[in-house]
Amino acid sequence: MRRVLLIAVASVGLMAAEPPPAPDRPLPDAAQEARAQRLFDDIRCVVCQHEAIADSPAGIAADMRGLVREQIAAGRSNEAIRDDLVRRYGDFVLFTPPLRLGTWLLWFGPFAVVLAVGAALLAFARRRKAEVAPLSPDEEARLADILAGQQLRRDPDAKRSDD
Amino acid sequence: MIVETGAFALILALAVSVLQLVMAAVGRLRRSPVLAGAANGAAIASAGLIAVAFAALIFAFTVSDFSVANVAANSHTDKPMLYKVAAAWGSHEGSLLLWCLVMTGFGAALARARNLPFGLKTSAVATQGLLGALFLSFTVFTSNPFTRLNPAPFQGESLNPLLQDPALAFHPPLLYCGYVGFSVCFSLAVAALIEGRANASFWPAWGRWVRPWALASWAFLTLGIMLGGFWAYYELGWGGWWFWDPVENASLMPWLAGTALLHSAVVTERRGALAGWTTFLALLAFTFSMLGAFLVRSGVLTSVHAFAVDPERGMMLLAILGGTAGLAFALFAWRAPQLKGGGMFAPVSREGALVINNLFLTAAAATVLLGTLYPLILEAATGATISVGPPYFALTFVPLMAVALLILPAGPLLAWKRGDLKGAMQRLAIAAALTVVVALLAFAVFEPRKALSAAGVGLGAWLILGALAETAERVRLFRAPLAETLRRAKGLPMGAWGMTLAHAGLGVLVLGAVVETGYRVEAARPLAIGQSVQAGQWTVTLNEIRIVEGPNYIAEQGRLSVAAPGRRTSEVTAERRFFPAGGQTTTEIGLDFRGLDDVYVVVGERARATTGEPAWNVRVWWNPWARLIFLGPILMALGGVLSLLDRRLRLAVGARKAA
After folding, report:
1. What is the complex's ipTM, to 2 decimals?
2. Of A97, B47, B144, B308, which sits 20 to 30 A from B193 (CA to CA)?
3. Domains in chain B, ordered, with CATH?
4. Is residue A111, in this structure, part of any structural domain at all?
5. Which of A57-66, A97-106, B118-127, B589-598 has the lowest mean pLDDT?
């Protein structure tokens, strides 16, 4: 009895937990459909956490997919479709952040870090090379002394040729 | 009674951790071995106490004691035993207790470590005590997992069904061993800065002490992230494994910093150089771990993973993060200029290559940090909301890493101090030629033709071939008699094998990631019984739909056959599960393993076919070489373990000299 009841409850749950969104109807033209799929990956489902409409099972994501397909079928360009979405939902709707004054740091920061640190390292290496001055006569004498006395510290790894 | 014992042990552990901090600090100031020894004992005792508390929590879950609020909120009598146990670390409170368990456990291991000099060890134990006390008080005062409910409910609310999965049962323990393992590197770095050794012989020894901790944490974190990705891959049912989601990014940042630390510590160990930089990375790795904890638990980020969203707890975590990291980095800024650089090296040398590795890894970590926090900062500053997702990282993180990986195989072939770039290139000539062949083949064979993806395949091959070429060079393969090669192979230190394996594993990961991302094929259609859908060469036919009953769910199970011309036909099942306890629905994908490829099947909601008969929305992905994405990190972690077994790290040569 319990089992029958459970199955009944579950079947209702499986079927009616959410109103089934209209199934996606791919565009008849394969090239256009491929364009749509690529766009879906960049458009954020606005009610979801961090999901593209390509992945989201939410109803609004299905609506947005339908909208994008309609516009592609109507012959609009990717740019126009994106601009439309941004006008309606704000920059938030695209996973590619816009490039404007406020996001320069975001876009160029990573490369600036590499260039700045790389340049600093190069400058450092040059300066240090200059600092390696020839030994003074006094130091030469001490070095000769040490070498003669074989007082070199034994490096435990020095005799391994293989590393 | 057992629950009270756990609660008591937890509070006692907090007191003991405070005692550990005080005794170690005073013991260090007075140079008292007795007090320092007592602090070590306290570190071990607090780990034991947390283990008791954790065992008590697991016990409460196994017997479904719903008078404990945490059990009532996260468990259910119908749940399978594995998930009852795993639910102990599935919630915010429980996972924080796990965090404390790992932290005090690593602290106890540090306290038992021999051959560390008195000053350094005692300072490190004090720092670890401070970290333990902070996180334990956070647990006790804001997130106590032993809080009681009165009256106790008859039934629990059950764990989020998405989390009821074997991969996710083991994902948090591994991940936390990685995150929190870096706390020991943090403590050792703070201790080294406090002790402020100016003599150059201190740093090689310090590098050798810090490396095993960094290696172990890194290997754990690598496995933990891999399991998390695998879980996302087959539990979310989206066909993807990495979404550049803020929480995934939060785990990637300590991984990148930890990877940089591993490499930089080698330079410090072998040559005494980069001491300041290595300490900085040791501080950074754990700071990123704490930042991750804050981001995940405070709810400042919107993420598919965000759990225990609570601004007040977030503020406390932020205070812990800001306080400890702020103090540590202030100490660093004060002491770093006094650190004596070790051995000199030419720009073209092993050291130089490792510096470049560090440059790119830290830039990559900075990129992930920027991409994760920028939307928050921008919104706070200007009110503008933006999303930073995969396209951003594909244009920033990916090229940076690609350059780093291109340089990588040359590094191990350069000698310390002054390397011979031309010689290294010559020794890589065969690998480079083969790489070009592989890339051209990939361009010709894979459909559709994609130049960038083919180049990515070449990059993966370059890493694997470069790692092999380096080992072949070391054992003089084909250039010396076989016996000589074997003798050399036997003589190679474990660390060298570990490095080869880890670098090759990275290549395997790159191969899988590039091929899966570049050439996967997706198809979706409403299918009635007997109808089929085509994805690439694969034809997936819906044979049967039936209702099946699980321990705590009811599922609609589809049986589908996967066929392709010239390949055996196999059958997979995919389910949509309904969990009555929480009212949630999840998808269980059907996965058909085809060599390195996956055929990935999701059975969705009911739909209506064009003919009017009942149908189900079926989505199919053909994910070529997806197996490599998960094999690569396993090889990398194995490489870390091999390096950990190296005699040099265990013997800790030079410890006495520095002490």
Report:
1. 0.84
2. B47
3. 1-164 (no CATH), 167-176+200-420 (no CATH), 428-520+627-659 (no CATH), 521-623 (2.60.98)
4. yes
5. A57-66
Structure tokens at B332: 């660093």
What is the pTM for the complete model shown? Answer: 0.89
- Please name the member of B367, B524, B553 whose beta carbon is closest to the beta carbon of A110: B367
Which residues in chain A touch residue B381, judged by CB atoms under 8 angstroms apart?
102
Task: Please write the tens of the pLDDT for every residue from B172-203.
Answer: 899 999 999 999 999 999 999 998 776 767 88
- Cα–Cα separations (whole angstroms), residue B330 to B132, B313, B366: 20, 25, 20
Summarize pLDDT for B489-542 with one digit per residue, the tens.
Answer: 888 888 899 999 999 999 999 999 999 999 988 888 888 899 999 998 999 999
- Burial label for A133, CB within 10 Å (0-12, 13-18, 19+), is exposed
By three-state DSSP, how is residue B48 classified?
Answer: helix
A110–B366 C-beta distance less than 8 A: yes
Please tell me the distance in Å from A75's CA to the nearest CA on chain B: 23
Do the domain assignments include residue A160? no
- For residue B166, cis peptide bond before it (omega within 30 degrees of 0): no
Which range marks the domain in which residue A132 is found? Answer: 102-149
In the block, residue with structure tokens 């021999």: B114
In terms of domains, do A41 and A109 share one?
Answer: no
Number of domains observed in the structure of chain A: 2
Sheet hosting strand B590-594, strand order edge to edge? B521-527, B614-623, B597-608, B590-594
Q: Which chain B positions have a beta carbon within 8 Å of A96's beta carbon?
A: 389, 391-392
Six token digits for residue B596: 């390195």
Residue B144 has pLDDT above 60, yes or no: yes
Placement of tokens 């969104």 in the chain: A21
Which of A47, A122, A162 is best to mutate for the B interface (most B CBs within 10 A)?
Answer: A162
The secondary element (H helix, E strand) that includes residue B574 is: strand B567-579
